[in-house]
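Intended use. Records such as the Glycosyl hydrolase entry shown here are meant for training and evaluating sequence-to-structure methods. They are not intended to support clinical decisions.
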Amino acid sequence: MDFRLIFFEILWLFTLLALAQPSPALQQRISDAIKDAANQTNPDYTAFVNPFIGTAKDGNVCPGASIPFGMVKFSTDMTGYAPAGYVSNVSEYIRGLSPLHDSGTGSSLGTYGNFEIMPVLCPGGFETCTTSLNGRQRFRKPDSDDGAPGYFSLTLDNNIKMEATPTRRSGLERFTFPPNTKPYFVLDLANDLPVSFAGGELNIDPELGRITIGGRYGSSFGPGRFNYQAFACYDLLDGGKQKLEEFGVWTADNYGLNAKGLGLTHLNLSLNLIGGVYQSGALFSLLPENPEANELNVRVGISFRSTEQACANAESEIGSATFDEIRERARLLWLEKLSRIEIDVAGSPPNVTEMLYSSLYRSFLTPNNATGESQGVFADTNAFYFDSLYCSWDTFRTFFPLLSLHSPVEYAQIVDTYIDGWRKHGWMPECRANNLQGWTQGGTSADNIVGHFAVHYYNEAQRLGIDLQELYQAMVTDAEVNPPEWNIQGRQVNVYKQYGYVPFAVLDTSSTGRQTREGSRTLEYAFEDFAIRQVAQLLDKPEDVERYTNMSLFYRNIWDTSVESDGFKGFFQKRYSNGTFFYNNPIDCSPNDKNETRACSLQGTNTNGFYESSSWEYSLFVPHDTAYLIELIGGRETFVKRVDHFFDKGYYLAGNEPSFQTPVEYHYADRPTKSVQRVREVVFQNFGIGPGGLPGNDDQAAMATLLAFHILGLYPVPSTTQYLVLSPMVPRYTIHNPFLGVSTTVRVVNYDAKSVAEKIPPGASAYVKDITVLASDGTVRWSTVEDPATNGTATPSRGSRCHFDFYDTFRLGGEIVITLTPDTHHVDSCGGSLPDSISTGGWNKARK
Ligand SMILES: *[C@@H]1O[C@H](CO)[C@@H](O)[C@H](O)[C@H]1NC(C)=O
Ligand SMILES: *[C@@H]1O[C@H](CO)[C@@H](O)[C@H](O)[C@H]1NC(C)=O
Ligand SMILES: *[C@@H]1O[C@H](CO)[C@@H](O)[C@H](O)[C@H]1NC(C)=O
Ligand SMILES: *[C@@H]1O[C@H](CO)[C@@H](O)[C@H](O)[C@H]1NC(C)=O
Ligand SMILES: *[C@@H]1O[C@H](CO)[C@@H](O)[C@H](O)[C@H]1NC(C)=O
Ligand SMILES: *[C@@H]1O[C@H](CO)[C@@H](O)[C@H](O)[C@H]1NC(C)=O
Ligand SMILES: *[C@@H]1O[C@H](CO)[C@@H](O)[C@H](O)[C@H]1NC(C)=O
Ligand SMILES: *[C@@H]1O[C@H](CO)[C@@H](O)[C@H](O)[C@H]1NC(C)=O
Ligand SMILES: *[C@@H]1O[C@H](CO)[C@@H](O)[C@H](O)[C@H]1NC(C)=O
């Protein structure tokens, strides 16, 4: 090797190490906070949150400053693949700081990123400022990115520091320039991350020191012909403490266009029909209050309705409050949410504490609360309005179930938005993104989101503002009414009902949609029908219960007994309308697929029959009837071997939602200790506290909430109140449900921190032996202990070592004592009832 090359390699390595982002001080601060909290009764849970987890390795997490469910999330926008704006990769440049982002989505170009502001140094004055995207971009200062709930900070390599702190629809930005430099700013009208500008205006009011800006932009994950509108209001004078000096407008490109209009105050641009990035905006300089500190405060209001409303939002939500005041208000909002789950910090491994609270943080980060900011058909709605629901296929499995344990008020508001989607569009939304309808993935996963709410809050629904009859009507519409185009809402209902599965290559004369994913759509539709069955049962509609129970079994119609893979027989496959199966190798689209170019997502060339998955993966997905799936596969023993093989051979995709339930499926084969071992392995192989600590896109906290359930030792079955019980990774936790006014403490007897590892060491206590559920007064509600009578008044067992029900536990409050043992031998069975399956009489009566 050439000497110079070695030199550069070493230099490069050194650079990489030296340029770590976020700042190492962040982790140090979190570690110290966790240590200090060991003896505190009311710890500051916000101090345990690392917002940068998932900002590398395509986690696509937005570490930006937001309040819980904030409509704005202030973060920098970077070059390269950065759907959430920010990435921790130090080789990417910063283009500016902007107020609108989503977190965890997988869109390739990104989502939002409108109204970027970039602080710049222009020693030669106004005319010499670099305004174009490429001209103004800069690297970061090493080890400087920082953040916390409600706060974001990044320092450029020219030592300009940018900070932001939010309210729901506005925020304060603080820029600190190096001493003796003149602060200039480039404000961008025509750029958002997906390069979707479709026309807009910018106006500078020099007297007010205000720039209003807004226009029409396109979706990050949906039809390109749909546009949404967004507006911003930048107040530049900090209540009169700062002065606007020079101002004007600019237009630029990378090929020589670099035009500036000093003193001009107006831009009115239309859609650039030839496409590509259109670069234009405002340029201005500010005089700070204190030239020595050289610190500038900018107030930003956002609205999806008008510039007037954007200004009013900033005025009402921030007014003249200072940066530190807004930051403290945001912190308190976060603290209130994060305190809904409290753990024994002293007894828990610090990394687990950090992973849990960072996951909880993201579980309250999205969807974005745009109530009062609705547009289009929702403009006049009285309902709550949430943006960025993408996609329901991701979030129904763990995100909403976690919300159901502690936050029914927030959950009900989001359910309201789903039902309102049905009122205004005719079907419930699947993948609302950027206020627009996005692509459907598995069908109408909203059914499982509202269904899960209904079964948990039947008694309180009305008080929470939800009419369950209306909710049910919305679900039935999803199942029965064929939309004209099922790519953006609804399902391909007519042919599904006619054939009992979504047929491949079928003549469909009643609707359009991309003819792909027939296998996975059948499986998801069937599970959506199960959700409807559950609500029909709740509302005492026996005929509907029968209808939707039958339809929930349609998954059986695509089981092809003849397909074999790795010695295992029987797989789901897509199927022609004449009944003949279409063979696809079950390995296709799995991590073991050698074909790097195979299309596995929404592409028309995806001929595999499954969405973002292999048949190996989806052939383990029948959450409502796993007992029958076990029969199809050949009985418990073969099933356990097959699940083992699935993991050991590498078909499992930790970052993919259809895989979420697989690690705990041993429960259904009466082998709960294997689920415990598998979950430990999954967590420690795929999750961590670094920027790369997620196995894939966070998908609006789908991944975060899966991890939270794994840490808590629970797994939810959507649209049911049943929870599978595993082995908590913390010795004690309490879930508070402020709306119900109850708190439930899970106390782990024989907890052993040594078991919290990828492989549970022999002798480490980790396996569930017994569960006892106690009322707040200490009386035993039920117990797996043989003679619970000795402990008080026992009711008949309503669960087993493997599962319990919300109505016996978190609904009522009290204590759940989980006793662990190192002895796998004696506890590797549910010791009573298995978790429910439709075909074995499960859910035969609604719990209310
Ligand atoms: C917590 O308090 C106990 C008893 O007062 C003490 O021994 C221990 O060192 C404290 N732990 C921490 C982390 O401060
Ligand atoms: C970081 O960004 C650089 C520049 O775009 C890119 O070449 C590199 O692959 C990225 N690294 C990672 C780990 O993504
Ligand atoms: C901006 O331009 C559009 C046409 O492109 C026009 O309809 C609109 O009135 C203009 N706005 C102003 C304020 O001039
Ligand atoms: C905790 O996280 C750090 C940093 O990622 C890692 O080095 C350490 O191994 C982790 N410890 C455990 C017990 O997982
Ligand atoms: C959403 O915003 C509305 C209007 O401010 C508020 O009433 C509601 O509580 C918010 N909901 C959540 C979940 O943040
Ligand atoms: C449901 O399926 C059963 C058994 O196949 C059948 O007897 C019954 O008529 C079906 N009910 C409805 C409402 O489709
Ligand atoms: C069903 O249709 C497919 C596609 O046209 C054809 O290949 C197959 O032979 C047909 N099966 C039967 C049983 O007719
Ligand atoms: C790989 O997949 C592509 C796209 O589906 C397909 O056209 C091609 O034939 C496949 N290659 C092999 C070797 O199977
Ligand atoms: C039940 O009673 C036994 C014997 O009195 C006691 O040791 C045990 O801690 C009790 N269990 C619970 C869950 O209270």
